[in-house]
Protein backbone atom coordinates (compact mmCIF):
# COMPACT_ATOMS: atom_id res chain seq x y z
CA UNK A 1 0.00 0.00 0.00
CA UNK A 2 1.77 3.08 -1.24
CA UNK A 3 -1.17 5.49 -1.61
CA UNK A 4 -1.34 8.17 1.06
CA UNK A 5 -4.68 8.72 2.78
CA UNK A 6 -6.21 12.11 1.87
CA UNK A 7 -6.84 12.88 5.54
CA UNK A 8 -4.80 10.24 7.33
CA UNK A 9 -7.78 7.88 7.59
CA UNK A 10 -7.38 4.16 7.06
CA UNK A 11 -10.43 2.63 5.41
CA UNK A 12 -12.05 -0.75 6.00
CA UNK A 13 -14.72 -2.30 3.80
CA UNK A 14 -16.96 -5.28 4.51
CA UNK A 15 -19.31 -6.64 1.85
CA UNK A 16 -18.06 -6.49 -1.74
CA UNK A 17 -21.30 -7.18 -3.62
CA UNK A 18 -22.83 -5.43 -6.66
CA UNK A 19 -22.70 -2.12 -4.80
CA UNK A 20 -19.81 -2.67 -2.39
CA UNK A 21 -17.21 -3.71 -4.95
CA UNK A 22 -17.27 -0.47 -7.03
CA UNK A 23 -17.65 1.65 -3.87
CA UNK A 24 -14.51 0.08 -2.38
CA UNK A 25 -12.64 0.60 -5.66
CA UNK A 26 -13.52 4.30 -5.47
CA UNK A 27 -11.99 4.48 -1.97
CA UNK A 28 -8.76 3.06 -3.39
CA UNK A 29 -8.84 5.50 -6.31
CA UNK A 30 -9.24 8.37 -3.84
CA UNK A 31 -6.04 7.23 -2.12
CA UNK A 32 -7.30 5.64 1.11
CA UNK A 33 -5.34 2.68 2.47
CA UNK A 34 -7.95 -0.08 2.39
CA UNK A 35 -8.49 -3.38 4.19
CA UNK A 36 -11.36 -5.53 2.92
CA UNK A 37 -13.38 -8.59 3.82
CA UNK A 38 -16.20 -10.31 1.95
CA UNK A 39 -17.86 -13.72 1.67
CA UNK A 40 -16.92 -14.23 -1.98
CA UNK A 41 -13.29 -14.70 -2.91
CA UNK A 42 -13.53 -13.08 -6.38
CA UNK A 43 -14.16 -9.47 -5.39
CA UNK A 44 -11.60 -9.71 -2.55
CA UNK A 45 -8.93 -10.83 -5.03
CA UNK A 46 -9.91 -8.02 -7.38
CA UNK A 47 -9.60 -5.41 -4.64
CA UNK A 48 -6.25 -6.86 -3.50
CA UNK A 49 -5.02 -6.67 -7.10
CA UNK A 50 -6.07 -3.01 -7.09
CA UNK A 51 -4.05 -2.31 -3.92
CA UNK A 52 -6.18 -3.33 -0.96
CA UNK A 53 -5.20 -5.70 1.87
CA UNK A 54 -7.40 -8.73 2.64
CA UNK A 55 -8.57 -9.43 6.20
CA UNK A 56 -9.76 -12.82 7.40
CA UNK A 57 -12.66 -11.42 9.39
CA UNK A 58 -14.50 -8.27 10.50
CA UNK A 59 -12.45 -7.97 13.71
CA UNK A 60 -9.26 -7.75 11.65
CA UNK A 61 -10.85 -5.08 9.44
CA UNK A 62 -11.82 -3.07 12.53
CA UNK A 63 -8.36 -3.43 14.07
CA UNK A 64 -6.69 -2.18 10.88
CA UNK A 65 -8.85 0.82 10.03
CA UNK A 66 -10.26 4.09 11.37
CA UNK A 67 -13.51 4.04 9.44
CA UNK A 68 -15.19 0.76 8.48
CA UNK A 69 -17.80 0.82 5.70
CA UNK A 70 -20.25 -2.08 5.91
CA UNK A 71 -22.34 -2.87 2.84
CA UNK A 72 -24.38 -5.99 3.59
CA UNK A 73 -28.05 -6.25 2.75
CA UNK A 74 -29.67 -8.43 5.41
CA UNK A 75 -30.13 -7.30 8.98
CA UNK A 76 -29.00 -10.75 10.18
CA UNK A 77 -25.77 -10.40 8.20
CA UNK A 78 -25.19 -6.94 9.66
CA UNK A 79 -25.65 -8.33 13.18
CA UNK A 80 -23.14 -11.07 12.44
CA UNK A 81 -20.65 -8.50 11.17
CA UNK A 82 -21.09 -6.57 14.41
CA UNK A 83 -21.64 -9.29 16.97
CA UNK A 84 -20.08 -12.42 15.50
CA UNK A 85 -17.30 -14.21 17.34
CA UNK A 86 -14.80 -12.28 15.20
CA UNK A 87 -17.11 -9.31 14.56
CA UNK A 88 -16.45 -5.58 14.60
CA UNK A 89 -17.23 -5.35 18.29
CA UNK A 90 -14.14 -7.52 18.96
CA UNK A 91 -11.87 -5.23 16.93
CA UNK A 92 -13.40 -1.80 17.34
CA UNK A 93 -11.09 0.62 19.02
CA UNK A 94 -11.74 4.06 20.57
CA UNK A 95 -12.14 6.64 17.85
CA UNK A 96 -13.18 4.24 15.12
CA UNK A 97 -16.35 4.79 13.13
CA UNK A 98 -18.57 2.12 11.61
CA UNK A 99 -20.64 3.32 8.64
CA UNK A 100 -23.64 1.09 7.88
CA UNK A 101 -24.41 1.74 4.21
CA UNK A 102 -26.80 -1.16 3.63
CA UNK A 103 -30.55 -0.71 4.05
CA UNK A 104 -31.78 -1.81 7.48
CA UNK A 105 -34.69 -1.21 9.82
CA UNK A 106 -34.34 2.29 11.33
CA UNK A 107 -35.21 0.90 14.79
CA UNK A 108 -32.13 -1.34 14.82
CA UNK A 109 -29.65 1.52 14.55
CA UNK A 110 -29.78 3.00 18.07
CA UNK A 111 -29.10 -0.43 19.63
CA UNK A 112 -26.14 -1.09 17.34
CA UNK A 113 -24.79 2.39 18.13
CA UNK A 114 -25.02 1.71 21.87
CA UNK A 115 -23.12 -1.57 21.55
CA UNK A 116 -20.38 0.11 19.50
CA UNK A 117 -20.23 2.97 21.98
CA UNK A 118 -19.46 0.38 24.70
CA UNK A 119 -16.16 -0.39 22.90
CA UNK A 120 -15.46 3.29 22.15
CA UNK A 121 -16.62 3.28 18.53
CA UNK A 122 -19.28 5.30 16.78
CA UNK A 123 -21.96 4.36 14.26
CA UNK A 124 -23.34 6.23 11.28
CA UNK A 125 -26.28 4.90 9.30
CA UNK A 126 -25.57 6.04 5.74
CA UNK A 127 -27.59 4.13 3.16
CA UNK A 128 -27.36 5.09 -0.49
CA UNK A 129 -29.40 5.56 -3.63
CA UNK A 130 -28.21 5.58 -7.22
CA UNK A 131 -27.69 1.89 -7.88
CA UNK A 132 -24.76 0.13 -9.50
CA UNK A 133 -24.28 3.02 -11.94
CA UNK A 134 -24.01 5.53 -9.09
CA UNK A 135 -21.69 3.19 -7.18
CA UNK A 136 -19.33 2.86 -10.17
CA UNK A 137 -19.36 6.56 -11.00
CA UNK A 138 -19.04 7.67 -7.37
CA UNK A 139 -22.27 9.67 -7.70
CA UNK A 140 -24.40 7.97 -5.04
CA UNK A 141 -26.75 9.96 -2.85
CA UNK A 142 -25.86 9.22 0.79
CA UNK A 143 -28.44 9.74 3.57
CA UNK A 144 -26.77 10.02 6.94
CA UNK A 145 -28.05 9.48 10.46
CA UNK A 146 -25.87 9.86 13.58
CA UNK A 147 -23.56 12.39 15.25
CA UNK A 148 -22.51 15.33 13.06
CA UNK A 149 -18.90 15.14 14.31
CA UNK A 150 -18.57 11.51 13.21
CA UNK A 151 -20.01 12.42 9.81
CA UNK A 152 -17.44 15.21 9.44
CA UNK A 153 -14.59 12.79 10.17
CA UNK A 154 -15.93 10.18 7.75
CA UNK A 155 -16.98 12.71 5.09
CA UNK A 156 -13.83 12.55 2.90
CA UNK A 157 -14.43 8.81 2.51
CA UNK A 158 -18.14 9.21 1.77
CA UNK A 159 -17.25 11.91 -0.75
CA UNK A 160 -15.16 9.34 -2.65
CA UNK A 161 -18.31 7.25 -3.13
CA UNK A 162 -21.13 9.77 -3.47
CA UNK A 163 -21.80 13.20 -4.91
CA UNK A 164 -24.61 14.14 -2.51
CA UNK A 165 -24.22 13.65 1.24
CA UNK A 166 -27.16 14.81 3.37
CA UNK A 167 -27.13 14.69 7.16
CA UNK A 168 -30.76 13.81 7.87
CA UNK A 169 -30.63 13.62 11.68
CA UNK A 170 -29.90 11.31 14.60
CA UNK A 171 -29.23 7.56 14.55
CA UNK A 172 -31.79 5.88 12.28
CA UNK A 173 -32.74 9.02 10.34
CA UNK A 174 -30.60 7.91 7.40
CA UNK A 175 -32.49 4.62 7.32
CA UNK A 176 -35.83 6.45 7.47
CA UNK A 177 -34.75 8.55 4.47
CA UNK A 178 -33.75 5.39 2.62
CA UNK A 179 -37.13 3.80 3.37
CA UNK A 180 -38.73 6.92 1.86
CA UNK A 181 -36.43 6.56 -1.13
CA UNK A 182 -37.41 2.94 -1.72
CA UNK A 183 -41.07 3.88 -1.41
CA UNK A 184 -40.75 6.56 -4.10
CA UNK A 185 -38.60 4.41 -6.39
CA UNK A 186 -40.92 1.40 -6.07
CA UNK A 187 -44.10 3.40 -6.66
CA UNK A 188 -42.54 5.20 -9.60
CA UNK A 189 -41.32 1.96 -11.23
CA UNK A 190 -44.87 0.59 -10.88
CA UNK A 191 -46.30 3.84 -12.34
CA UNK A 192 -43.94 3.70 -15.34
CA UNK A 193 -44.76 0.01 -15.80
CA UNK A 194 -48.51 0.70 -15.71
CA UNK A 195 -48.12 3.60 -18.16
CA UNK A 196 -45.99 1.72 -20.69
CA UNK A 197 -48.25 -1.32 -20.45
CA UNK A 198 -51.33 0.89 -20.95
CA UNK A 199 -49.67 2.56 -23.95
CA UNK A 200 -48.90 -0.79 -25.58
CA UNK A 201 -52.39 -2.16 -24.94
CA UNK A 202 -53.94 1.04 -26.35
CA UNK A 203 -51.84 0.81 -29.51
CA UNK A 204 -49.29 3.56 -28.79
CA UNK A 205 -45.56 2.84 -29.10
CA UNK A 206 -44.18 2.65 -25.51
CA UNK A 207 -40.76 3.94 -26.63
CA UNK A 208 -42.32 7.08 -28.12
CA UNK A 209 -44.53 7.56 -25.09
CA UNK A 210 -41.49 7.32 -22.80
CA UNK A 211 -39.66 9.82 -24.99
CA UNK A 212 -42.55 12.31 -24.80
CA UNK A 213 -43.02 11.84 -21.05
CA UNK A 214 -39.33 12.55 -20.39
CA UNK A 215 -39.98 16.16 -21.48
CA UNK A 216 -42.73 16.95 -18.95
CA UNK A 217 -43.84 16.50 -15.34
CA UNK A 218 -43.58 12.71 -15.64
CA UNK A 219 -39.80 12.97 -16.07
CA UNK A 220 -37.75 10.98 -13.58
CA UNK A 221 -34.62 8.85 -13.33
CA UNK A 222 -36.93 5.83 -13.10
CA UNK A 223 -38.64 6.71 -16.40
CA UNK A 224 -35.18 7.20 -17.90
CA UNK A 225 -33.46 4.04 -16.59
CA UNK A 226 -36.15 1.54 -15.59
CA UNK A 227 -38.47 2.69 -18.40
CA UNK A 228 -35.71 1.89 -20.88
CA UNK A 229 -35.15 -1.54 -19.31
CA UNK A 230 -38.86 -2.30 -19.69
CA UNK A 231 -38.82 -1.31 -23.36
CA UNK A 232 -35.64 -3.26 -24.05
CA UNK A 233 -36.92 -6.23 -22.00
CA UNK A 234 -33.64 -6.20 -20.06
CA UNK A 235 -34.41 -7.48 -16.58
CA UNK A 236 -30.81 -8.26 -15.59
CA UNK A 237 -30.22 -6.55 -12.22
CA UNK A 238 -29.47 -3.68 -11.39
CA UNK A 239 -31.77 -3.54 -8.42
CA UNK A 240 -33.01 -6.99 -7.51
CA UNK A 241 -36.69 -7.62 -6.77
CA UNK A 242 -35.74 -9.62 -3.66
CA UNK A 243 -33.77 -6.72 -2.21
CA UNK A 244 -36.44 -4.16 -3.02
CA UNK A 245 -39.05 -6.44 -1.41
CA UNK A 246 -36.89 -6.61 1.72
CA UNK A 247 -36.72 -2.80 1.73
CA UNK A 248 -40.47 -2.61 1.08
CA UNK A 249 -41.05 -4.67 4.25
CA UNK A 250 -39.00 -2.07 6.16
CA UNK A 251 -41.13 0.70 4.61
CA UNK A 252 -44.38 -1.03 5.62
CA UNK A 253 -43.09 -1.81 9.12
CA UNK A 254 -41.94 1.81 9.62
CA UNK A 255 -45.33 3.10 8.46
CA UNK A 256 -47.13 0.69 10.79
CA UNK A 257 -44.94 1.73 13.72
CA UNK A 258 -45.57 5.47 13.25
CA UNK A 259 -49.20 4.99 12.20
CA UNK A 260 -49.35 6.33 8.65
CA UNK A 261 -51.17 4.95 5.59
CA UNK A 262 -49.48 4.06 2.29
CA UNK A 263 -52.39 3.47 -0.10
CA UNK A 264 -50.29 3.92 -3.23
CA UNK A 265 -47.24 1.93 -2.13
CA UNK A 266 -49.01 -1.04 -0.56
CA UNK A 267 -50.02 -2.65 -3.91
CA UNK A 268 -46.44 -2.12 -5.13
CA UNK A 269 -45.05 -4.00 -2.12
CA UNK A 270 -47.57 -6.78 -2.83
CA UNK A 271 -46.47 -6.95 -6.46
CA UNK A 272 -42.79 -7.33 -5.43
CA UNK A 273 -43.76 -10.25 -3.17
CA UNK A 274 -45.73 -11.84 -6.01
CA UNK A 275 -42.66 -11.66 -8.26
CA UNK A 276 -40.62 -13.45 -5.58
CA UNK A 277 -43.36 -16.07 -5.07
CA UNK A 278 -43.24 -17.03 -8.72
CA UNK A 279 -39.45 -17.25 -8.75
CA UNK A 280 -38.50 -13.87 -10.22
CA UNK A 281 -36.78 -12.47 -7.13
CA UNK A 282 -33.42 -12.27 -8.88
CA UNK A 283 -34.70 -10.10 -11.74
CA UNK A 284 -34.39 -6.32 -11.84
CA UNK A 285 -37.34 -4.54 -10.19
CA UNK A 286 -38.36 -3.15 -13.57
CA UNK A 287 -39.78 -6.67 -14.09
CA UNK A 288 -42.85 -5.32 -12.26
CA UNK A 289 -44.19 -4.68 -15.78
CA UNK A 290 -44.34 -8.43 -16.49
CA UNK A 291 -47.04 -8.91 -13.81
CA UNK A 292 -49.21 -6.32 -15.55
CA UNK A 293 -48.72 -7.86 -18.97
CA UNK A 294 -49.98 -11.19 -17.68
CA UNK A 295 -52.90 -9.82 -15.68
CA UNK B 1 -50.75 43.07 -36.98
CA UNK B 2 -47.30 43.91 -38.28
CA UNK B 3 -45.41 40.76 -37.31
CA UNK B 4 -44.63 38.46 -40.21
CA UNK B 5 -45.45 34.78 -39.81
CA UNK B 6 -42.31 32.61 -39.65
CA UNK B 7 -43.76 30.29 -42.29
CA UNK B 8 -46.74 32.23 -43.62
CA UNK B 9 -49.13 30.51 -41.20
CA UNK B 10 -51.88 32.48 -39.50
CA UNK B 11 -52.57 31.22 -36.00
CA UNK B 12 -55.86 30.91 -34.14
CA UNK B 13 -56.21 30.20 -30.42
CA UNK B 14 -59.31 29.19 -28.49
CA UNK B 15 -59.21 28.86 -24.70
CA UNK B 16 -56.98 31.34 -22.84
CA UNK B 17 -56.86 29.72 -19.39
CA UNK B 18 -53.89 29.08 -17.07
CA UNK B 19 -52.16 27.15 -19.86
CA UNK B 20 -53.65 28.74 -22.97
CA UNK B 21 -52.83 32.35 -22.14
CA UNK B 22 -49.01 31.94 -21.92
CA UNK B 23 -49.02 29.49 -24.87
CA UNK B 24 -50.81 32.07 -27.05
CA UNK B 25 -48.40 34.79 -25.92
CA UNK B 26 -45.52 32.58 -27.08
CA UNK B 27 -47.13 32.32 -30.54
CA UNK B 28 -47.20 36.11 -30.73
CA UNK B 29 -43.60 36.36 -29.56
CA UNK B 30 -42.59 33.92 -32.31
CA UNK B 31 -44.15 36.27 -34.88
CA UNK B 32 -47.37 34.46 -35.84
CA UNK B 33 -50.38 36.65 -36.69
CA UNK B 34 -52.91 35.55 -34.06
CA UNK B 35 -56.68 35.61 -33.71
CA UNK B 36 -58.07 34.56 -30.32
CA UNK B 37 -61.32 33.68 -28.61
CA UNK B 38 -62.00 32.77 -24.99
CA UNK B 39 -64.82 32.81 -22.45
CA UNK B 40 -63.14 35.30 -20.10
CA UNK B 41 -62.67 38.87 -21.27
CA UNK B 42 -59.44 39.53 -19.29
CA UNK B 43 -57.05 37.22 -21.14
CA UNK B 44 -58.55 38.24 -24.51
CA UNK B 45 -57.85 41.90 -23.73
CA UNK B 46 -54.32 41.02 -22.64
CA UNK B 47 -53.64 39.13 -25.88
CA UNK B 48 -55.13 41.97 -27.96
CA UNK B 49 -52.88 44.45 -26.13
CA UNK B 50 -49.94 42.18 -27.05
CA UNK B 51 -50.89 42.27 -30.74
CA UNK B 52 -53.59 39.63 -31.29
CA UNK B 53 -57.01 40.16 -32.89
CA UNK B 54 -60.16 39.14 -30.98
CA UNK B 55 -62.83 36.98 -32.64
CA UNK B 56 -66.43 36.78 -31.45
CA UNK B 57 -66.65 33.00 -31.87
CA UNK B 58 -64.83 29.84 -32.96
CA UNK B 59 -66.10 30.07 -36.54
CA UNK B 60 -64.48 33.49 -36.90
CA UNK B 61 -61.21 32.08 -35.53
CA UNK B 62 -61.33 29.23 -38.06
CA UNK B 63 -62.11 31.58 -40.94
CA UNK B 64 -59.19 33.84 -40.08
CA UNK B 65 -56.43 31.28 -39.48
CA UNK B 66 -54.59 28.32 -40.99
CA UNK B 67 -53.89 26.46 -37.78
CA UNK B 68 -56.28 26.71 -34.81
CA UNK B 69 -54.99 25.72 -31.38
CA UNK B 70 -57.75 24.68 -28.98
CA UNK B 71 -56.93 24.54 -25.28
CA UNK B 72 -60.14 23.73 -23.41
CA UNK B 73 -60.27 21.14 -20.66
CA UNK B 74 -63.71 19.52 -20.81
CA UNK B 75 -64.76 17.21 -23.60
CA UNK B 76 -68.17 18.93 -23.67
CA UNK B 77 -66.46 22.31 -24.17
CA UNK B 78 -64.33 20.87 -26.96
CA UNK B 79 -67.47 19.54 -28.68
CA UNK B 80 -69.09 22.97 -28.40
CA UNK B 81 -65.99 24.58 -29.93
CA UNK B 82 -66.21 22.13 -32.84
CA UNK B 83 -69.94 21.62 -33.28
CA UNK B 84 -71.59 24.73 -31.76
CA UNK B 85 -73.79 26.93 -33.91
CA UNK B 86 -70.76 29.13 -34.54
CA UNK B 87 -68.18 26.38 -34.00
CA UNK B 88 -65.02 25.50 -35.93
CA UNK B 89 -66.93 23.23 -38.29
CA UNK B 90 -68.77 26.31 -39.59
CA UNK B 91 -65.57 28.22 -40.34
CA UNK B 92 -63.09 25.45 -41.17
CA UNK B 93 -61.74 25.72 -44.70
CA UNK B 94 -59.78 23.24 -46.84
CA UNK B 95 -56.20 23.10 -45.72
CA UNK B 96 -56.83 24.28 -42.18
CA UNK B 97 -55.60 22.30 -39.20
CA UNK B 98 -57.20 22.10 -35.77
CA UNK B 99 -54.80 21.19 -32.96
CA UNK B 100 -56.55 19.87 -29.84
CA UNK B 101 -54.09 20.51 -27.01
CA UNK B 102 -56.43 19.87 -24.07
CA UNK B 103 -56.66 16.44 -22.48
CA UNK B 104 -59.57 14.41 -23.84
CA UNK B 105 -60.66 10.81 -24.19
CA UNK B 106 -58.56 9.14 -26.92
CA UNK B 107 -61.68 7.49 -28.36
CA UNK B 108 -63.25 10.88 -29.16
CA UNK B 109 -60.48 11.95 -31.53
CA UNK B 110 -61.18 9.82 -34.61
CA UNK B 111 -64.81 11.03 -34.69
CA UNK B 112 -63.79 14.67 -34.41
CA UNK B 113 -61.20 14.13 -37.15
CA UNK B 114 -63.84 12.64 -39.46
CA UNK B 115 -66.19 15.59 -38.93
CA UNK B 116 -63.38 18.07 -39.65
CA UNK B 117 -62.36 16.07 -42.73
CA UNK B 118 -65.90 16.56 -44.05
CA UNK B 119 -65.22 20.32 -44.28
CA UNK B 120 -61.70 19.80 -45.64
CA UNK B 121 -59.85 20.38 -42.35
CA UNK B 122 -57.47 18.15 -40.43
CA UNK B 123 -57.15 17.34 -36.73
CA UNK B 124 -54.10 16.75 -34.58
CA UNK B 125 -54.44 15.66 -30.96
CA UNK B 126 -51.46 17.29 -29.25
CA UNK B 127 -51.84 17.43 -25.47
CA UNK B 128 -49.03 18.79 -23.36
CA UNK B 129 -47.12 18.23 -20.14
CA UNK B 130 -45.00 20.69 -18.19
CA UNK B 131 -47.66 22.81 -16.50
CA UNK B 132 -47.93 26.56 -16.22
CA UNK B 133 -44.13 26.89 -15.91
CA UNK B 134 -43.59 24.98 -19.16
CA UNK B 135 -46.35 26.97 -20.86
CA UNK B 136 -44.73 30.29 -19.87
CA UNK B 137 -41.22 29.23 -20.77
CA UNK B 138 -42.24 27.54 -24.03
CA UNK B 139 -40.74 24.28 -22.82
CA UNK B 140 -43.82 22.04 -22.87
CA UNK B 141 -43.62 18.43 -23.97
CA UNK B 142 -46.15 17.93 -26.80
CA UNK B 143 -47.51 14.43 -27.60
CA UNK B 144 -48.94 14.32 -31.09
CA UNK B 145 -51.46 11.98 -32.73
CA UNK B 146 -52.63 12.34 -36.33
CA UNK B 147 -51.19 12.60 -39.87
CA UNK B 148 -47.44 13.27 -40.06
CA UNK B 149 -47.93 15.80 -42.89
CA UNK B 150 -50.31 17.89 -40.79
CA UNK B 151 -47.82 17.78 -37.91
CA UNK B 152 -45.03 19.00 -40.18
CA UNK B 153 -47.15 21.98 -41.31
CA UNK B 154 -48.12 22.86 -37.74
CA UNK B 155 -44.70 22.15 -36.27
CA UNK B 156 -43.30 25.73 -36.35
CA UNK B 157 -46.24 26.79 -34.22
CA UNK B 158 -45.88 23.89 -31.79
CA UNK B 159 -42.16 24.66 -31.55
CA UNK B 160 -43.06 28.14 -30.28
CA UNK B 161 -44.85 26.53 -27.32
CA UNK B 162 -42.86 23.40 -26.57
CA UNK B 163 -39.28 22.16 -26.55
CA UNK B 164 -40.12 18.48 -27.12
CA UNK B 165 -42.55 17.42 -29.86
CA UNK B 166 -43.06 13.67 -30.25
CA UNK B 167 -45.22 12.14 -32.97
CA UNK B 168 -46.71 9.18 -31.12
CA UNK B 169 -48.95 7.77 -33.87
CA UNK B 170 -52.40 8.05 -35.44
CA UNK B 171 -55.42 10.03 -34.23
CA UNK B 172 -55.84 9.49 -30.49
CA UNK B 173 -52.25 8.33 -29.84
CA UNK B 174 -51.36 11.76 -28.43
CA UNK B 175 -54.23 11.47 -25.97
CA UNK B 176 -53.13 7.95 -25.00
CA UNK B 177 -49.64 9.30 -24.28
CA UNK B 178 -51.14 12.10 -22.19
CA UNK B 179 -53.22 9.58 -20.23
CA UNK B 180 -49.96 7.70 -19.53
CA UNK B 181 -48.38 10.99 -18.47
CA UNK B 182 -51.17 11.79 -16.02
CA UNK B 183 -50.94 8.28 -14.61
CA UNK B 184 -47.21 8.64 -13.93
CA UNK B 185 -47.51 12.18 -12.57
CA UNK B 186 -50.42 11.25 -10.29
CA UNK B 187 -48.76 8.11 -8.93
CA UNK B 188 -45.50 9.94 -8.40
CA UNK B 189 -47.17 12.85 -6.56
CA UNK B 190 -48.85 10.28 -4.28
CA UNK B 191 -45.51 8.48 -3.78
CA UNK B 192 -43.72 11.71 -2.84
CA UNK B 193 -46.62 12.62 -0.52
CA UNK B 194 -46.48 9.21 1.18
CA UNK B 195 -42.69 9.46 1.55
CA UNK B 196 -42.63 12.98 2.99
CA UNK B 197 -45.53 12.15 5.32
CA UNK B 198 -43.73 8.98 6.46
CA UNK B 199 -40.52 10.95 7.04
CA UNK B 200 -42.33 13.53 9.18
CA UNK B 201 -44.17 10.88 11.20
CA UNK B 202 -40.90 8.97 11.77
CA UNK B 203 -39.12 12.11 12.98
CA UNK B 204 -36.98 12.87 9.92
CA UNK B 205 -37.02 16.37 8.41
CA UNK B 206 -39.01 16.09 5.12
CA UNK B 207 -36.98 18.92 3.52
CA UNK B 208 -33.71 17.05 4.16
CA UNK B 209 -35.22 13.78 2.96
CA UNK B 210 -36.37 15.46 -0.26
CA UNK B 211 -32.90 16.93 -0.70
CA UNK B 212 -31.24 13.52 -0.30
CA UNK B 213 -33.74 11.76 -2.57
CA UNK B 214 -33.14 14.27 -5.37
CA UNK B 215 -29.62 12.81 -5.71
CA UNK B 216 -30.65 9.20 -6.37
CA UNK B 217 -33.12 6.97 -8.20
CA UNK B 218 -36.07 8.73 -6.54
CA UNK B 219 -35.22 11.95 -8.42
CA UNK B 220 -38.04 13.37 -10.53
CA UNK B 221 -39.60 16.67 -11.57
CA UNK B 222 -42.47 15.81 -9.22
CA UNK B 223 -40.11 15.42 -6.24
CA UNK B 224 -38.51 18.71 -7.23
CA UNK B 225 -41.67 20.79 -7.83
CA UNK B 226 -44.57 19.09 -6.05
CA UNK B 227 -42.32 17.91 -3.21
CA UNK B 228 -41.32 21.52 -2.59
CA UNK B 229 -44.98 22.64 -2.62
CA UNK B 230 -45.77 20.00 0.01
CA UNK B 231 -42.93 21.17 2.24
CA UNK B 232 -43.86 24.84 1.79
CA UNK B 233 -47.59 24.03 2.21
CA UNK B 234 -48.27 25.95 -0.99
CA UNK B 235 -51.33 24.36 -2.59
CA UNK B 236 -52.16 27.23 -4.96
CA UNK B 237 -52.52 25.70 -8.45
CA UNK B 238 -50.52 24.81 -10.57
CA UNK B 239 -52.27 21.68 -11.58
CA UNK B 240 -55.75 21.58 -10.13
CA UNK B 241 -57.07 18.47 -8.39
CA UNK B 242 -60.34 18.72 -10.35
CA UNK B 243 -58.52 18.65 -13.69
CA UNK B 244 -56.24 15.80 -12.68
CA UNK B 245 -59.29 13.85 -11.47
CA UNK B 246 -60.93 14.42 -14.87
CA UNK B 247 -57.76 13.10 -16.53
CA UNK B 248 -57.63 10.19 -14.08
CA UNK B 249 -61.13 9.18 -15.21
CA UNK B 250 -59.81 9.10 -18.79
CA UNK B 251 -56.89 6.93 -17.63
CA UNK B 252 -59.21 4.47 -15.86
CA UNK B 253 -61.64 4.39 -18.80
CA UNK B 254 -58.81 3.78 -21.28
CA UNK B 255 -57.44 0.96 -19.10
CA UNK B 256 -60.92 -0.59 -18.80
CA UNK B 257 -61.44 -0.38 -22.56
CA UNK B 258 -58.13 -2.12 -23.41
CA UNK B 259 -58.34 -4.52 -20.45
CA UNK B 260 -55.29 -3.68 -18.35
CA UNK B 261 -54.96 -3.39 -14.56
CA UNK B 262 -53.69 -0.28 -12.73
CA UNK B 263 -53.18 -1.49 -9.15
CA UNK B 264 -50.86 1.40 -8.22
CA UNK B 265 -52.80 4.21 -9.89
CA UNK B 266 -56.32 3.21 -8.83
CA UNK B 267 -55.92 4.37 -5.18
CA UNK B 268 -54.44 7.64 -6.47
CA UNK B 269 -57.49 8.25 -8.66
CA UNK B 270 -59.67 7.50 -5.61
CA UNK B 271 -57.70 10.00 -3.51
CA UNK B 272 -58.20 12.75 -6.12
CA UNK B 273 -61.97 12.11 -6.03
CA UNK B 274 -61.93 12.25 -2.23
CA UNK B 275 -60.23 15.66 -2.36
CA UNK B 276 -62.98 16.92 -4.68
CA UNK B 277 -65.70 15.43 -2.48
CA UNK B 278 -64.48 17.41 0.50
CA UNK B 279 -64.27 20.66 -1.47
CA UNK B 280 -60.55 20.76 -2.31
CA UNK B 281 -60.91 20.37 -6.08
CA UNK B 282 -59.44 23.79 -6.74
CA UNK B 283 -56.20 23.10 -4.84
CA UNK B 284 -52.96 21.98 -6.50
CA UNK B 285 -52.71 18.18 -6.81
CA UNK B 286 -49.80 18.20 -4.37
CA UNK B 287 -52.59 18.58 -1.76
CA UNK B 288 -52.79 14.76 -1.94
CA UNK B 289 -50.47 14.86 1.08
CA UNK B 290 -53.19 16.43 3.23
CA UNK B 291 -55.34 13.29 2.95
CA UNK B 292 -52.46 11.22 4.34
CA UNK B 293 -51.81 13.61 7.20
CA UNK B 294 -55.41 13.30 8.35
CA UNK B 295 -55.68 9.54 7.92
Fold and architecture overview:
Two copies of one chain form a homodimer. The first copy, chain A, has 295 residues and is an alpha/beta fold. Chain A has helices spanning 20-29, 41-49, 58-63, 75-83, 88-91, 106-117, 131-137, 148-159, 173-201, 206-213, 221-232, 241-258, 266-277, 288-293, and strands at residues 11-14, 34-37, 53-54, 67-70, 97-100, 122-125, 128-129, 140-145, 162-169. Chain A has a six-stranded parallel beta sheet with strand order 3-2-1-4-5-6, with helices on both faces. Chain A has a three-stranded mixed beta sheet with strand order 7-8-9. The radius of gyration of chain A is 20 Å and the shape is globular. In chain A, helix 9 crosses helix 10 and helix 9 (173-201) packs across helix 11 (221-232). At the A-B interface, strand 7, strand 8, strand 9, helix 9 and helix 10 of A face strand 7, strand 8, strand 9, helix 9 and helix 10 of B.
Question: What distinguishing features does this structure have?
Answer:
alpha/beta; three-stranded mixed sheet
Amino acid sequence: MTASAPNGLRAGFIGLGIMGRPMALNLLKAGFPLIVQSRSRGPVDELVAAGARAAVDAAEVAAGSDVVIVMVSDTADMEAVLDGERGLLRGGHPGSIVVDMGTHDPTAIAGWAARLAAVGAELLDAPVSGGEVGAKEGTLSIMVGGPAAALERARPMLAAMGSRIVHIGDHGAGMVAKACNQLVVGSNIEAVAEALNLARAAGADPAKVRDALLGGFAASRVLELHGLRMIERDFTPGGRVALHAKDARIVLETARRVGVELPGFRPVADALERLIARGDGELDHSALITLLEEA
